[in-house]
Structure formats: structure tokens, C-alpha cells
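Please describe our next protein:
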Amino acid sequence: MAVCSIFIELQSVSLRILIIHMKRRILLPVAALLLGSFHYVTGQDLKLNDREYFETQGANVLVYSNLFTGGFNDEKNAGIELIHHGVRTAQGGAVRLSNTPEQWDLVPDILNRKIDRAAKTIEATLRYKEYNFDSRVVVTAKGKGVEISVYLDKPVPKELEGSAGFNLEFLPSQYWAKNYLVDGRPNLFPRYVVGNTVTKPNSQKPKQYKGYVTSDDRGTGKFIDPLPLETGRTFLFAPDSPERMVKITSPDADLMLFDGRMLAQNGWFVMRSLLPAGKTGKVLTWTVEPNAIKGWVRDPNIGFSQVGYLPAQPKVSVIELDKKDKPAKSASIFRVGDDGKATKVFTGKIAPWGDYFKYYYVKFDFSAVKTPGIYYIQYGDTKTNNFLIGEQVYSKITDATSDIWIPIHMNHMFVNEAYRVWHGEPFKEGYRQAPPNTDHFDLHAQGPTTDTKYKPLEVIPGLNVGGFFDAGDFDIETGSNISVVQNFVKTWESFKPQRDQTFIDQQQRYVDLHRPDGKPDVLQFIEHGTLNLVAQAEIIGHMAQTLSNSVLDNYHHLGDAASLTDGLPYNSKLGPYEVAKDGRSSGVKDDLWAFTSREPELDLRAATMFAAASRALKGYNDDLSARALTQSKRLLKEATSLLANQKQDTSGRGNAANMATNLQLYIATSEKQYLDRFQELLWPALERNVSGNLLTALDAIPHLDASYKEKLRPYVVKYKEYIAGLEKNNPYGVPIGLTNWAGSGDVMNFGTTVCFASKYFPEIIEGQHAFKATNYLFGAHPYHNYSLVATVGATRPKAVFYGNNRADFSFIPGNVAPGILFRKPDHFENYDDWPFLWGQNEGTIGGNTAYLIFGSAFKNLIK
């Protein structure tokens, strides 16, 4: 490696910068900074490319390619964004109303986005309708960087003076422990949040989403406002790290650096300038210059299965390359021997696949390597970590999910693991009826009536039993829990797993991990989920939308679920935070609410699940089995009648739910009326969408005659054509989602469908297609090659996930990440040093139980 050391003198401060030449790159440029001048030896100027963002090799500046949402608002995925040497390191560039915006702070609507190629500009108009406040942000290519200008046709509203400013946020994990310079003064980005705050009257706090408030002021009437870490006119970020070095200057306003983690663990470092009061026209200008290392080429991402490979299975590595990179002609496999020495055992040709969004892809087939052992791949100067080839590599892929992740997410239970308590028993005070016309911050709503016999804010008895936490939060999303029970039932009925590693006692409300109790865990999971859902149907009369937080300041709770509320029912006769003398109630408004507006489609889904659960529970918990079947029949009848009186459902969701419900009821009861209705709905559904409905059709095969299977055959042929299309669509040959929730779920559904289709139609669907799903989940995917399942991977599973312990930068074993998130127009990402982006890192109870099905089906396939 070439090493270049330079010294920069700034106001008598000597700063030594060591710049190390990374392998496969030419000599890195020397950065020189003098007090009155700044110079980069970099590549080409930023250009406005045909994908409508500013680009040079090593630096991309996106301008409102991705917009703020109206649901979760500031998701740290929008605005002006910087993709710096392959990593999205800055985002959120926009006029904002606070120093360190939180998730539910207001975000501007983007009214328009204009491209002027002649002027090399991208312009957007931003509006805060809550304040009738518009601004225009114009970004112009300027040499090695961009100029960002803010224009106002009307002055900043009086109530926003001192609040409205331009912000650009930087990813903490890419900057902590690095240096920065402010007008020549050296400083250090903190690893953990430090700094100072002040408190201000709540009357000065800008409005938040739908009037909600993110924090509990504990009766002080004041909110916390962070103070800047530093203030100046020129900031140089990371002069000690060329790949992250950015210079920001402003000729007409102070630049202030804030640490957004002061208010929220998911906050970023924020660069901010206030907009001046009483001015119009161009009111603010910044110049942002990201360092672009001359000749930089992104290292190859060698995609392979971290879990390993069976000796006889196909083994194809997908290698993701910078388009400036020159593909090698071959790659090699090395085996690590008993003496620890590596020996080359195979060399094969590299086969081109082609461009896919930002990168170029090639493939390396090493299926010829079959001898069990420890191996790694060498491509050019890049080699992977070790992986295994052996007969047992897939034998434990679901154990961490079923033994640890799932029981940890059991609600209304005390969950223990050895010396550790994951959480105490949550929500002993139960759930209150959500009042009418409540628009919830988690995208739920209570309509104009309660649709129940309970008065607004009245406690609904009996709901605090069973159920699973939805995801990285602690609510019970009914739709998710319905899917979860169905997933457990399918796992049980298809594979009868006898694994018993969890002690579950419903009377004690106690769970102990790694402690067998003589009962199959999956049956106990079915029981636990059904207990809550049957309670909803029996007590409310139909399914609740959700059992969730009533106040925003405990919705984002991180830590023990049992401490989310005080465990005492709210008593309106008590003062704030007062506890009754008998200790049985309090004045704390922290009780969870039941959102009970009736949705017939949800009732249909519940009817499907109840029918399935009744079968699984028969002989294990006969009382609960009978109750579930009763509710299935009732909800099917009532929901079908309600839907008939509504507008025609054009989405197809109602028919899909009705189709599956009738199938499950036929399996449970053998009544012909359900079979007839199932088939009436099935065939049109397959015509519309074979890939989305084939799995339900396959579920019916064991319960119907041979003529049904033959009628299904042409649709399986269509699915084969769908598989072939995926091979042409992307280099991984699996469905890759391009929305704001990454696509691991689609990949698992694909893998499960292949497993069952191959079981029933092996002459049409080859089982080896399922290996594409495991390869993708376990490391052969864009951006990096880490396994997307926590702790599952021979050497390198992902290290951090969005769970309820995300503030610890950790994981819950067995968690399955949503995966590789697509950012428009052409960037994939999955942060492994920053857990807080749920669309790529949050495990859900629905997704993890879908993984349980897929893993079980896959293990069954390869027997």
C-alpha cells in the first residue's frame, strides 16, 4: 500500500493527516487546507446525469429524488442526499423548523421538482401548509460541489422566526470518532451523544404531526432544545478520512452543528443555518463540496451464502462491480486445511450478467466444488470470509428465530433468558376504548363511532392476554397477528415440528428460553396468538385494528416493555402523575387503546386464521379450538354480508381473504359450501396474479381430488415462466422489492412457493430454484454480502437490527431484516452500523414467522 503523510497548519494548530492507499486504487489525493483557501485534488466536476442527480465518480448528490412521507414523516430517507463513495452519508436537506428534527416533526410537502440542464440546476418548492409557508430550494452544480440556495417570495412567518432554517443531516456512524474543523478550529465527532441543551416554553415549540407531541414534559410546560456543538462559516468534515471528507461554507449565515441524538437515539448530526427574518429573494446560500477520491473504484461485493452450501447444490456467486471497474476473467476457490493453510482447489470463468441499476454484475459458478470443508472465494485482490460446504449447513437456520426471537415477542408475559430478563409482563392495566374520530400516529384511525358497546376511554376487560409484539415496538397489530397464527399453523400442519426449547406457562404468564416443557413450541405459539385474537372477537364483537399506544411519547419507547406504562389504570380524578392512595390507579395517561372501527376485510382474514387454528389446537386446547371455529363461522358470515353492502372491492384483497377463509373452513369442517366458494374465487384470482395466489392454491392440493390438481397445472406452468422472467429481471433471480420497505418478505414467499410447487409438480418446478432465496437471504444480494438473519451465517451475519433493543446497536437472535432497501433512482443500501431505518432493518413478527415457514419448507425440500 502506498502511504502519503501531509501536514496542514491552521492558526498555529498542526494537524497530521495520514492518507492510506486502499488496495485496487491509485494514490489517494492530498487534501490541503489553508485558512483562506481550500483545495481538493479530485476527479471530475459534478455533472447533472440522465437519472436527474449530480454525479462524479465517488460522489452523488440527489435532490428530492426521494420525498418526505406524510405517514412517518422524517424517515431519514429523503430530501437532498449525498451518496459518498458508495454509502448514503447525508440526507434530509430541506427547510426545517427545528434544530434536530424528530421522526414526527413536520416535513414540507414538495410541490414541484424542476430540472434545468442548461443551468445545471434542480429546483423544488417546499410548503408547510400548517404555517402557509413556502420556500424554494435551488441546487446548482458548482465545480467539485453544489451550491444550495433558499429563496423566499414572502418573509419567514413571525411565528417561525428563529425556528425555520436549512438543515442537512449526516449519518453519525460514518463520522463519529472522526475529526472536523470549524473556521480552522479542530474538534471531534462524539461516539455517544454529548453536548448542552436548554429548555423553552412549550408555546415556542413548532407544531408536530397531527398535533401529537413526541416527549413527556413531566408537567414542566417546557421542551428540550439542543444547543450547537460548534458554530462558524466553514466546516470541514473528516479531513482525516478522504472517503468522508466534506466541506460546507456559507457566505451569508452562520453554520451550526447539532447532535440530533440529544432528543432521539435515531437522530443524525445536523448542519443548520437559520433563515433571516424579514427578507425575501435569495436568503441563504451554502456550498457543499464532497471529496471525490480521484480514480476511486468501489470494491467488489462478492455475494455468496454465509450459511454455506450443500455439496451437491448449485453454487453461484453474484459479484457486484463498479461500472468503472474492469471485470476479471476468473475467480478461485481456496480450501482451508487442517493445518490452517489455504490451498487453491478450483478456478472458474467469470460470466457477465450486465447492468442492474447503479452497478455491473458478473457471476462465478463453482458448483464443481463438492468436498465438505472450509472455503473462501478469491476475486482479483478481494477475498471473502470463510464459509462451509457440508451436509448439515442448513440444519439450524430457523432455530434462533423459533427459540429466541419469537418467544421474546410474546406480549403479556414475563420473558426470561438465563440471567437476563428481556421484558416483564406488559400492560397489566389493560386497554381502553379509543375515542371516536381519533387519527392515530401509527396510521390507524377510530371512526365516528366505537362500533362496540364500550364508551370512549372505558376499559375493555379481557384483552390483555396472548398476542405478539408487532415489530420493534410493543403494540398488537391485529393484521400482523392474524398472519402470524396462520404462519404457525401452516408450519405445524405441513411439518409437525416437535422442537421444544421454550417453557411457556399461561397461568404464571411466564416464558423461559432454552428450557423444554414437554410441549412443541409451535403449538404453544399458536395458542398464544389465538388467545388474544379470540378475545378480540368475543369481547369486542369483531377484530380491532390495533391495540396500541394512546400517546406518542411512549410509542417510541425503547427498553423493557413492562416499563412502557405504569401498570395502573388511568384515573381522571387524580392529578398528573399522582398515584391513588390505594395504589390501584394513577393520573398518568399512558394506558393503551383499542382501535375498534370495524373492517370486514380484517374480519375475513381473522375467520381464515380461526378456522386454521381450530384444527391445530384440537386435542391440545379443545376449548380454545372450539371457540376459534365458532368465531370463524360467525365472522365469515357477518363480514361477507357487510362487504356485499359496501362499494365493490376493486383491490382484490377482500376476494383473496374470502378465498383463503373458505378454503380453511372447508379443511376444518368438510362442508361443501366452503369448497364451492373457494373454487369460485380461486380461478379468477390466478388469472389476475398467479405469483401472488399460487401458494394458496397449492395449500388446497392435499384436501381436494386429482382433478383439482390437474386444473391447477397450467397455472404452475405460468409460474415457471414467472421464475424465468426473474432471471432476466435481476442477477439474483428473485423478486426484489423497490418500495420503502425492503423485499426479504417477497424473497421468502418466492422460496416457499417454489418449495411447495416443487413438492406437488416436480416435473414443472425444479426445487433448486429455492436455493436462490437462501442465497439472497444469507449473503448473495446487493450492497454487502452479510446474512440478513441475525446470528445465522457461518462468519458474517448482520450485526445490528431495528428491534426494541436497537438503541444498544445490537440484535435479537433470529431476526430477519427486511433487507436491501431501494433508494430512487438507482441506489440499494442496508446499513450494518446504523439500526434505526426500519425499512431495511426492522424485524416483524409476520416476517419472522414467514421465515419459519420458508426455512421449514426448505429443510424439508433438501432432505
Residues 1-42, 649-653 have pLDDT under 50 and may be disordered. DSSP finds 14 helices and 45 strands in the chain. The longest strand covers residues 342-356.
